[in-house]
Amino acid sequence: VGSEMCIRDSQATGGGLATLDFDVGAQGIGASIGQFAFGFGGIGAGTSEITPDALELLLFGNVGESGTGRDFDFSGTSVDVWTLYGAHASYAQPFRLEVLPQAGFSAGATLRYGVARDLLRITESRSDLIYEPLGLDVAMQKLQSTEGNAGSAFAADLGLAMEWEGRMVFGASLINAIQAISWDESSFAVTNYEINADYEEIAINSTTIPYGDLDPDAQANVDALLDGASLPRRLRLGSLVRLSPELDLSADYVELIGGSLRSSWDRSLSTGAEFRGIPKVPLRAGLATSFDQFALTGGLGLHTGPLHVDFASGRWGLGGGDGIVSALSLSFWPNF
């Protein structure tokens, strides 16, 4: 059993929107037999666009960063959340080339089929918080699947790796190289909210309209959103050099291609080191960039028998912008 969670938060500069993304994944059952592997698990992810006013309100309350109080306008804030679960099967074929006898190669593919459990989108068209006299006025719309099966997804991943004399490893993979997502439009509904509040009362009015009862224009808007709701292809290039039994150096480049269901940066380049002076407590440090910001990260692991816990955290802001990045990985491999 294993799980991963990664939360990324980068504050926009120059009056733009802040972004908050998250990924949560769980591998419930997994097994490998020779060159084959099988598993069942799920993922949940989301991304939000938050106006500077909304972020200031979240951090400092209605007195604002100045502490004197002011009005806030967070119209345009949006949230997208989706979950999928399913099964996968993988196969890897090792091989060698006569022209490179020092190198060992492996090519593999993973096939995945899953159920789209949920797709939620919230958009705000009008949101104001008045400081004096205190008042809140919010208008927002929610599109959400109302059934347990919102659709189905199929994807195939491709990968190639090379090991050189047991000291260097190079790899390339394309996640979601082939994919298809089919949404069940009839399982969705649109809910419109009107929220008004002051010192004396809070009034919340909502209207939910199933997809089949929407007017043609509204149905066309939902269709357009679902047609474009696809997972991005993820190109990943990586390398590792083992300098000694205790020290590894690595580099990794990731780029997202297409797809609207994104929950991470469009591209990133990172490099790092792992030191295993104490084998059960590896120490790690790294430098990463999204090509407009930089981050320094550090972390450690705790490997005790079948339980592996790994944590890393860092801070963006070395070259513009500000924010934090963190990751937590838990895995458990029982011995039978």
Key words describing this protein structure:
6% helix, 14-stranded antiparallel β-barrel, 2 helices, 336 residues, mainly beta, 18 strands
Task: Characterise this structure.
By secondary structure, the chain is mainly beta. The protein is 6% helix and 67% strand. It contains 2 helices and 18 strands. Strands 1-2-3-5-6-8-9-12-13-14-15-16-17-18 form a 14-stranded antiparallel beta barrel.
Question: How would you sum up this structure in a few lines?
Answer:
This protein has 336 residues and is mainly beta. It contains two helices and 18 strands.
Strand order of the largest sheet: 1-2-3-5-6-8-9-12-13-14-15-16-17-18
Largest sheet: 14 strands, antiparallel, barrel
Order of helices and strands: EEEHEEEEEEEEHEEEEEEE
**Which structural class fits the helix and strand makeup?**
mainly beta
Overall pLDDT metric: 80
Helix coverage percent of residues? under 10%
Per the principal axes of the C-alpha atoms, what is the gross shape?
Answer: globular
Layout of helices and strands, plus pairs?
Layout: E1 2-11, E2 18-33, E3 36-50, H1 52-60, E4 72-73, E5 78-97, E6 100-130, E7 135-145, E8 151-164, E9 168-183, E10 188-198, E11 202-210, H2 216-227, E12 233-244, E13 247-257, E14 267-275, E15 283-289, E16 294-304, E17 307-316, E18 322-332
